Amino acid sequence: MQVLVTGGAGFIGSHLVERLIDLGYSVTILDDLSTGNLTNLERVISNPKLRFVEGSVTDELMVDPLVKEADAVIHLAAAVGVKLVMDQTLRSFQTNVRGTEVVVEAACRTNTKVLLASTSEVYGKNSSGIFSEDSDFVYGPTSVARWTYALSKAADEVLAHYYCKEFGLPTVIFRLFNTVGPRQSGDFGMVLPRLVKQALTGIPLTVFGDGSQRRCFCHVDDTVAAILSMLDSSACVGEAFNVGAITEISIIDAARMIIEMTSSTSPIVLVPYEEAYGPGFEDIPRRVPNISKLASFTGWAPTKTLEDVMHSVVDCVLADMMA
What we know:
The chain is an alpha/beta fold. The chain has eleven helices and 15 strands. α2 (60-69) crosses α4 (89-110), α4 (89-110) runs parallel beside α5 and α6 packs parallel to α8.
């Protein structure tokens, strides 16, 4: 089976590609290396079953023949990370929506299965706290950059859903909730690697807002297992699924846990959102996935504990600093 992975040199993509190669799949990666890195693929880059193509998912002439060769497409390529989206708002929006449009249009011509990576951000500022796949999407005004990423991924979902409904394109949508693990960078606003690096270098851990916001952190190995379970399931076609862990922790408690794990003497400093991201930024007080739907379709469930996840991040950041 030939699988095209867009964004395959990125954090999640590289782990997925490794697992696909280990399972005997032939894999083509399309990545423009804007946030990905070939060093992420070090273990498999010379494998004859892997082909790397440098380019953008917005390039129709490049995407079309790659999709035509594939039996399935896992579309991970996107502008990601709060910092990147806030710094490059329009470009991020255009990359996400146009890239998905190009991929699904190409897939429609050959009826190639598409797995679309979406995000928990699509739920916006819905205050229910625990999100099921049919929960409402609630956004602020379009003039506030904070919501553009969520809106772009919601638009991606519309494309996938209605290409499936109107043209019969086999699509699956998976909404990721805070995936963490080896190779994740704190450079684009990813909270755990950033806090760990601060703790290990002895500088203050910067927690935005009052730190009471609660999140669940899923290890990348569990996320990859979820994606593979959907790839292998015909029953998942036409559906959207939450993918994440369900053990929640406040960000300030995560910072305290990191300080304890690293034996750091760094203090915790609270930084107002306005200072971190500019005026008008809103955060979500609680974001926890209901993952029972995917469990009922494929039997998937996360296997790593919160402690496992935190230790993994600490170990990886430490290894990167010593390299």
